[in-house]
Amino acid sequence: MRSPTEFSAWKKLAEHQQEMISVDMTSLFQADPKRADKYQAQAAGWTLDYAKNRANDTTLSLLTELANEAGMKNAIDGMFSGAHINNTEDRSVLHVALRASQAQDTLMVDGVNVLAEVRATLKQMEQFVAQLHTGEWQGYTGKAITDVVSIGIGGSYLGPKVVAEALTPYKKDSIKVHFVANIDGSDITGKLKQLNPETTLFVISSKTFGTLETLSNANAARDWFLSNGGSQDNVSKHFAAVSSNVKKAVDFGMAKENIFPMWDWVGGRYSLWSAIGLPVAIAVGMDNFYELLDGAHQMDEHFRTAPLEENLPVIMGVLGVWYINFHNAQTHALIPYDHYLRAMPAHIQQLDMESNGKANLLNGDAVETDTGPIIWGGAGTNGQHAYHQLLHQGTRLVPVDFIAPLTSHNPIAEHHTHLFANCLSQSQALMVGKTLEQAQQELKDAGATDEQVAKIAPHKVIKGNRPSNTLLTDKMTPASVGALIALYEHRTFVQGTIWGINSFDQWGVELGKVLGTDIYNRLVSNSDNSALDASTQALIKAFKKAQH
Ligand code: F6P
């Protein structure tokens, strides 16, 4: 296992960065009239414009060389073939199998045809969703289900929630889907207040069926059901589960036929395509869920087969590495200009930061380079009136991905044209900035005195030369949303491959869980806390005092 710093392309990129440091992006456009056309790539209904980057042909060919040296092609083939690329857990990583083409019927992994299991689960989901939508599924008083509450956290929550929200225009009227995740009692209490136990069904989504937040909320939901007219015998009419731990779900009161399987070879943050996506399928119907899978599959095929230099996830991945490792960018922003996609940055944040927030190479050696960036963002244009100030004039370099549909689901008045104009103007402003001379002239034109010009102009200077990608699609459909999320999944893998880390485990979250249990025990007992640090002791005291 080699550190990426040992690749010859890495060394060449470090030297090349010195040449590029004084190069302005606008001069790259002037030097190459074909730049906009050249630095554009298409896949699965998406167009990526990556012309507004601090990169020229040499940069891109060195970045491709880096991807090649890191064994990108083999890594991609390894993932698609079911190799145990999650080496610390000795597991395959096969979210791509969940959306494989119907034309493929076999994918043998460790002696099992995983596609047979995937298809059987999809059939089970079809029946379940149809029963809910036709009203055939009835609650304990014979009424049809009107509300479904999905209870889960992390990967068993964010992906489905974000996709269900992204597909709002496709929602079926008959059933409302709600999501509960946090162990903060205010989350579930707020939801339950709106619901009728006779017509509410809970879907408990937990791969392990052992996650504190999910089990606490599932128990709270069952208590609410039992104390509002339901009985233990009727729990199975109002509770279903998605889990790889069937026994625990049965012990909870779930009927076996209402338990949907999960597999070791799907990581939580990559699981929305499995039965973890059941709330999405209930919200928008199985037809749209299949389209979502198909969109993701189109992106998978592109990722698997396209040459690296035309490959969207690879282009975005290597450009990210360029900024993180050669320009010291600490963060990366995602800014969708689409109201329904407003929560997408949170899903990609989880996907990327849980995957690439690592400090060890696959062989356990410490990394020598920075790895995953801080992913953040939110909907445009709202962010323009909040954090875009820092993007334009702050001291940090923040590469941005702008994401926008060309047409709107709600084309009222001039809204969409303004929305789209703002999206383009932000990437333009980041690149071109404003010089001191321009700022001075602007003030003079507005009638400012010389003194005012001297005082204000420096504050109006915007350095520019800040990079961004723009991703466009015709419309936010189930297929385009599926392709978009798959694109980011693969981008994460591309970067993890270059850094030589395992993007598919998450050992870092375990310590907090263990300590959380220990502190919980101290909060509810009279234990001797003197061995703890003084700060934690004082905080425990404060909590205990407030309970009396
Ligand atoms: O936060 C750690 C984690 O294990 C995630 O990877 C996972 O998606 C989440 O907790 C929930 O786990 P489960 O689906 O087992 O409840």
From TrEMBL:
Its main location: cytoplasm. InterPro entries: G6P_Isomerase (IPR001672), G6P_Isomerase_C (IPR023096), Phosphoglucose_isomerase_CS (IPR018189), SIS_dom_sf (IPR046348), SIS_PGI_1 (IPR035476), SIS_PGI_2 (IPR035482). The keyword Glycosyltransferase does not apply. Pathway: Carbohydrate degradation; glycolysis; D-glyceraldehyde 3-phosphate and glycerone phosphate from D-glucose: step 2/4; Carbohydrate biosynthesis; gluconeogenesis. The active site is at E354, H385, K513. It is found in: Cytoplasm. Pfam families: PGI. GO terms for cellular component: cytosol. SUPFAM superfamilies: SIS domain. One of its GO terms (biological process) is gluconeogenesis. It catalyses: alpha-D-glucose 6-phosphate = beta-D-fructose 6-phosphate. Keywords: Cytoplasm, Gluconeogenesis, Glycolysis, Isomerase. GO terms for molecular function: carbohydrate derivative binding; glucose-6-phosphate isomerase activity; monosaccharide binding. Its EC number is 5.3.1.9. Belongs to the GPI family. HAMAP family: G6P_isomerase. Catalyzes the reversible isomerization of glucose-6-phosphate to fructose-6-phosphate. This is Glucose-6-phosphate isomerase. It comes from Marinomonas posidonica (strain CECT 7376 / NCIMB 14433 / IVIA-Po-181). The lineage of its organism: Bacteria, Pseudomonadati, Pseudomonadota, Gammaproteobacteria, Oceanospirillales.
